[in-house]
Inverse folding.
């Protein structure tokens, strides 16, 4: 039996889970910044391999338990796309486009998801509970380390480029949702979480719920804000 859990903001479970997640993220940063320059590539490869292992485990467990469906488990949610990038970005040369997409989409998507968690426990397996926090912590921590540990910078208009890429993903997902009655990117129905950024206006414009257009405004504000906050900050010298 599949169960969907919504964890209320600042509830006891929320505080406990956030504390554990932040602790492991801080451990990740501590290890990363202590590693010698000659081992930094190995550290990034291990980071990618861990995300790859957890991602494959997630899909294998779903398949074994006959819970994997096209309607729910394609990796085309924004955070799932970011996690896929994390699976191999440690094995690539410094790819500016992948980094910038991961930085904006991964951190913003990961933060919003962790702050207002909605978790599906397929067959009530608590692996998916752990996977939820691992995935979203990874898509926050890895691009932050690339920014400050590898000293990768955000280029001018990177915010606009990523905003455009997210909308290309949206255009790709909309017909899939219509075809298989799915809710990828939550653009068919809003998520169940209690989030002030989610305006539950189900009126439609060109077949798209009105709240999606509100999200567009929120997204453009967030990516611009992230660009100006993070563009000049440096902590560690380039590798």
């Amino acid at each position: 039996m599949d169960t969907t859990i919504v964890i209320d903001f600042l509830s006891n479970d929320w505080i406990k889970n956030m504390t554990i997640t932040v602790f492991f993220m801080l451990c990740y940063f501590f290890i990363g910044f202590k590693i010698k320059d000659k081992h930094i590539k190995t550290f990034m490869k291990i980071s990618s391999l861990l995300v790859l292992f957890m991602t494959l485990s997630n899909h294998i467990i779903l398949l074994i338990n006959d819970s994997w469906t096209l309607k729910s488990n394609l990796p085309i949610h924004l955070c799932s796309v970011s996690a896929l990038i994390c699976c191999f970005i440690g094995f690539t040369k410094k790819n500016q486009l992948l980094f910038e997409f991961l930085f904006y989409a991964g951190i913003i998507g990961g933060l919003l998801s962790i702050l207002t968690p909605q978790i599906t426990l397929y067959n009530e397996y608590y692996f998916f509970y752990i996977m939820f926090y691992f995935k979203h912590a990874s898509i926050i921590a890895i691009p932050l380390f690339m920014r400050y540990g590898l000293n990768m910078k955000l280029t001018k208009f990177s915010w606009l480029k990523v905003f455009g890429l997210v909308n290309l993903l949206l255009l790709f997902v909309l017909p899939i949702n219509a075809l298989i009655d799915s809710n990828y990117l939550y653009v068919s129905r809003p998520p169940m979480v209690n989030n002030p950024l989610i305006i539950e206006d189900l009126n439609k414009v060109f077949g798209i719920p009105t709240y999606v257009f509100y999200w567009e405004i929120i997204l453009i504000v967030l990516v611009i804000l992230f660009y100006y906050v993070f563009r000049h900050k440096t902590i560690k010298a380039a590798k």
Notes: The chain has a mean pLDDT of 90. The CA atoms of residues 96 and 236 lie 18 Å apart.
